[in-house]
Amino acid sequence: MEEKLLKPYNPKETEERIYKLWEDSGFFNPDNLPDERHKSFTIVMPPPNANGDLHAGHTLFITLEDIMIRYKRMAGFKTLWLPGADHAGFETQVVYEKKLEKEGRSRFGMDPNDLYKEILDFTLLNKKNMETQVRSLGASCDWSREKFTLDPDVVEKTQDTFVKMYNDKIIYRGKRAINWCYKHQTSLSEVETESSEELSPLFYLKYGPFSIATVRPETKFGDKYVVMHPDDKRYAEYKHGQKIKLEWINGPIEATIIKDEAIDMEFGTGVMTITPWHSQIDFEIAKRHDLDTEQIIDWRGKLLGIANEFAGMNIKDARAKIVEKLKAKGLLIKIDEKYQNVIKKCYKCGTVIEPQIKDQWFVKMAPLTKLALNSVNRGEIKFIPDNYEKIFRYWMENSIDWNISRQIVWGIPIPAWFKGEEFKVSKEKPNGEGWTKDPDTFDTWFSSGQWPLMTTGFPKHEDFKKYYPTDVMETGHDLIFKWVPRMVIFGLYLAQKAPFHTVYLHGLVNDAQGKKMSKSKGNVINPLTLTDKYGTDALRMALIVGNTPGTDLALQENKVKGYKHFANKIWNITRFVLDNTKDVEPANASALIDECNKTIKDVTEDMENFRFYLASEKLYHYLWHRYADEIIEESKKNEEVKKSLFYILENSLKLLHPFMPFITEEIWSILPARKNLLMVEKWPLAKLGASDQKKNDNK
Ligand SMILES: [Zn+2]
């Protein structure tokens, strides 16, 4: 009897040693797998942000992907799981700014190069920490191929793509109303904002002969166009282009009548004035009619000179005072206190987004989303769960041009140069005097969107030929509109092939009560505390059993504890079987072996169909409630039963390995006459026995 088995199973003493065994074997790298394998199976790991500790969500995706990879490796595929680390542009800069704030410093006023260097040091330190944590979860990924989103070749290729898209006229530079965060001093894309409905007062103001409604009287100083629908009979007497004189906030003005079909006749009085600099819709109207635009609020949220006595005042403080003045001048008609208003906020800091007109780089989305939709229509991409196909389509059918310029230093520089109003797109500085570099960096999704291409070495690397398109993209369901479509788009645009055929989306990992974890609520569960206490295998099982794709999971410590007991149970089963079958001639066939084969068949079908939540649960019940509680008990009374025990143990360990890799590998090394690591053993084939055959014949 192996001495180890006499003591209880100790994950702490086992896990690091086993992981080293795997890593040293070289089998994480598909080039080193022991036998000839023709079919490949590839997953590109969503690169965790290298700006802090792994959270419970990371633990779930690492477990899910490791299950897929370990299963396919045992099933004879040339498996590549390609890990990465994300510099995470804006996200990391936000984390770093908080750190600076704590130290009583600020990024504003810092030399951009110094700031960049500080954030780089911070990120590289966190990257090491993150990699250690990914290893501790048992991830069987190929570290020799690891990529960082700021690796020189990634930077190079991202810039190449930008130049190509500019030359293909898919990227343009232009003035448009963008989403501006006052706190972070950068523009943001649509997906970096969050919209919510809030009750806001709606102010009805007297604008000459009209009554106009607005939630933002503080932006109205410069309003000199009054717009109505051309079909609105109430205002038929007014002609497009007609001028009217009227008294406004800071004195008499001349306003111009504009007729435009974008006006909602049902909203307010059907008439509105426009503030093109601070509203996307107004900006579009102004563009259609070639109207003047003027900035009212500066980049810090303060009113400009046009506001007269209010100039320099923060818009938050100004509103009440402006309303007071409107009232005093008799321009305030009424206030509707309960207006349902959609408010857009910065997804990181909650600051209300200000539309501002700014020269930025934009990606024309229409030609690209068409590629993505066609690919889905041709059935090239399957979504699990399948209702996400609809969400994917919605985002593809409703996307507006994508602003990829960010006013932050932490990212890949945009290869463009300016001289006055002139600009050039080029990685090298243009000839001639006076060119300055675009200080902006790319939206991080611009490079992350190309991740499956970057990691496989598009366009020329051997890996690209072997492993692209990859197989599965497994990621959080919230990335269905941020990341997944961009990868599809770039894959189709650059390589003419979708980067994966299956998208598996997991839900959030919430606290034990099902509430979203957040630092401010103080309900964050650190997964590493749980693995420390109960072992990594136990946490992996707790995350997988019963966790259907796309749905959120409540992580309960008791559940993790339960699977620690399960690990102990398997340990004790092994001890019993090895102790009691030493001199037993194993059976080749029996009803129990048939039953085990039925389990193999069932579990294999579940694995093939991404039903890991079911496969794991079946194995748990089979091993504990059938094998341990009944079969082993029976074997104490019936010698015949003993002949089948080893067969069941051996095959169960194989089936359980993707879910609980550490304990199964450890036991495997104890079983008599083991040559291979369990991780590269062949996945069991279900041999349907005589009794099963009969059942099938009767059907
Ligand atoms: Zn912000």
TrEMBL record:
Alphabetically ordered keywords of this record: Aminoacyl-tRNA synthetase, ATP-binding, Cytoplasm, Ligase, Nucleotide-binding, Protein biosynthesis
GO cellular component labels: cytosol
Domain Methionyl/Valyl/Leucyl/Isoleucyl-tRNA synthetase anticodon-binding span(s) in chain numbering: 592-686
Catalyzed reactions per annotation: tRNA(Val) + L-valine + ATP = L-valyl-tRNA(Val) + AMP + diphosphate
One GO BP: valyl-tRNA aminoacylation
InterPro entries referenced in this protein's UniProt entry, alphabetically: aa-tRNA-synth_I_CS, aa-tRNA-synth_Ia, Anticodon_Ia_Val, M/V/L/I-tRNA-synth_anticd-bd, Rossmann-like_a/b/a_fold, tRNAsynth_Ia_anticodon-bd, Val/Leu/Ile-tRNA-synth_edit, Valyl-tRNA_ligase
Domain Aminoacyl-tRNA synthetase class Ia: 18-425, 433-554
Pfam families per the UniProt record, alphabetical: Anticodon_1 (PF08264), tRNA-synt_1 (PF00133)
Catalytic activity, EC: 6.1.1.9
MF annotations from Gene Ontology: aminoacyl-tRNA deacylase activity; ATP binding; valine-tRNA ligase activity
Assigned protein family: Belongs to the class-I aminoacyl-tRNA synthetase family.
PANTHER family: VALINE--TRNA LIGASE, CHLOROPLASTIC_MITOCHONDRIAL 2, VALYL-TRNA SYNTHETASES
Protein name as annotated: Valine--tRNA ligase
Annotated source species: Candidatus Nomurabacteria bacterium RIFCSPLOWO2_01_FULL_36_16
